[in-house]
User: What shape does this take?
Amino acid sequence: MKSNQKLTVLFWHRKSKVDASGNAPIICRISIDGTDEEFSIGRKVHLNNWDAEIKRATGGTEYKKTNLKIAQVTADLERYFTVLQLEHEHITPLMLKNVYHGLPAEHKKGTPKPAAPTCITLLQMADMQIAEFSKMVDKKLRSNETLKQWRSTRKKIVEFLKFEYKQEDLDISEIDYSFATKFYKYLTIDRKKVLQEAAAKKQIKNTKQILTLAESNCLLGKNPIQKFRCGGDETDVPPLEFYEVNLIWRKDFAIQRLVEVKDVFIFQCFTGFAFQDVYALTESHICRIGINGERWLIKDRGKTGVSEMVPIMPIVEEIIEKYKDHPCRKVQGLLIPVNSNARYNGYLKEIAVIAGINRELNTHLARHTFADIMLNIFGFSLEEVSKMLGHRNIRTTQRYAKVRKTRISQTWSKVRNIGFTEDGHLRQVIGQ
Assistant: This one.
């Protein structure tokens, strides 16, 4: 259920209620579909210190506090409106005003105020998080793939609530630290399809963020699972050996869908692009760089918006050229044919069996393999690999690629004659 109504929030100066000191209250007006509701925000401003054009107070420190209050009221109303949109097909200004003041949305004017307002639930907060994230996706500030992960977290919370609490939802006021430990146990032990440790901790991390949103909106005193550790030791993802990459590349597949999946996987192994980015590649992402006009692939990552750039290597150029007349290019305008994530990973399992690769292939493994090839075989520095992967900091890259002994050995072979003579004596440094 999702309302498509539009909210307008306006603030005005009620001069008719001016007091003896010349101060008048600031009124908030909520407008939805031509109907209004108003309430005082609990702040007064002198008649000479209200800018009617920008609807803000002017003057000293006290008026800055008033403007901060105006900004807070606006943000709170927008958040509550987002939640109501998910729960009701039609929203009235009175419903929003009620919720803002801690009343049930359907509370009618003139009726007694309930003894205690209904507490907001975990799933309501999850819906608020998803709704706010959706807005950022619409503005291209966040990735649609990450939005899918948030929705997946919500589904797993629903599963857990039914399993552990035998109910559809849970007031956030009832959540304590044990919620996180029980949720983790459910995901890794009790669930029909258990998750690996890292994946389970990611779900707890998302749940922690949902409760932090409640805390920041004054809907929860303190996040009860804040201290639950979602980090710990990073799970190493061993990359494919270079000979395994070559084995896949050289293998002939009789089925066209497997040929295309093989090409996309190899493309990833030599570009480092994540699934959602390789899926969205077009010819417009091919750029000419330098005086020689080398062809590079440059694209902002869908997940973070950070630009990743990588030279187009011969094997990648071959794949791009191969699909120049493919419908994906001619009809859809995409660079290469990429299946949905689920199908892609499913077909990679077939490829692993046929090619004799004794491990599970998946789209993310290709990104780790790229990092290893660039660092340990082609000799790029960690900083250069980080730039090609579009990472914000080098610590993330260090989780993708480990310096191998072979790289250290190759570097030592290059530099040993700089410091030592052929018979092993330390060279005399010129100038000393």
